[in-house]
Amino acid sequence: MLATEPPPAPLHKAQNYYEMDVSHSHLELTLKAMHAHDKYAMLDLYHTLSERTLYMRFFQVIAEPSIDELHEFTDIDYQKTFAISVFHGASNQLVAAGRLVKLGDTSDTAELSCIVSDDFQKQGIGAVLVKHLLLMGKQVGIKTVVAMIQGTNRAMVKLLKRSGYPCQIEFSGGEFEVVVNLDNEFTSEN
Ligand SMILES: CC(C)(COP(=O)(O)OP(=O)(O)OC[C@H]1O[C@@H](n2cnc3c(N)ncnc32)[C@H](O)[C@@H]1OP(=O)(O)O)[C@@H](O)C(=O)NCCC(=O)NCCS
Question: Which residues contact 93 (CB under 8 A, 6 or more apart)?
C-alpha cells in the first residue's frame, strides 16, 4: 500500500498551529488549529453566545448545532479552510474561534469569520485571534482576506482596521465589506 503523501510544509504548519499569546487585558490564551475533537468544546462555546453575537457571526440566530453539524464544522480540510480554536484558563475553556475559507481551490483570497464568547468579549481576545488568523493565512499563501460585517458591528471593523495591514472598507446594503491586503504590513496603526 502506498503511503499517503505528506501535506506541503505550510499546510502541515497550519494544521498543527499551536501558539501562546496574551491579550491586552492579560488573559493568557492558547491558539490551536481547530480539529474535530474540538466539537464538544464548540458546543459549550455555543451555549455562551448571545443572540446578538450569533447574528453578527452567522447573519441569523442559528439553533443549537447537532453533534454531526459540530463535527462537520470542526473537521477542517486544511487545503481550503484554516481555523483556530482559542482556549483559556485552567479548565482550557474554548473562548473563541475563527476561520479563513479560501474562495476557490486555487484562490489566494479567503473569507474571515470569528466569534468570541460573550463572557470574554472586550478583553482583547478578538484582536489576538485576528492577528493569528492573518498570520496563519500568510503562512499558507493567502494574499487577500475579505470579511462581510453587519453594519452595526463596529468592533469587527475596528479589529481589521487595526490588524496592521492595509484595509479597504466599503459599505453597502447595510453591511461592510473589508478587504485586507496581507502583502503589505504597516509598522503603525492605519
Ligand atoms: C467582533 C468580536 C470578534 C470582537 O471580539 P472582542 O474579543 O470583543 O474584541 P476586542 O476585545 O479585541 O476588541 C476590539 C475592539 O472592539 C471594541 N468592542 C468589542 N465589542 C464591542 C461591542 N459590542 N460594541 C462596540 N465596541 C466593541 C472593543 O472595545 C475594542 O476597541 P477598543 O480597543 O477601542 O476598546 C466579538 O465581539 C464577537 O464575537 N462578535 C460577534 C461575532 C462577530 O461579530 N464576528 C465577526 C463576523 S466576521
Answer: 41, 44, 87
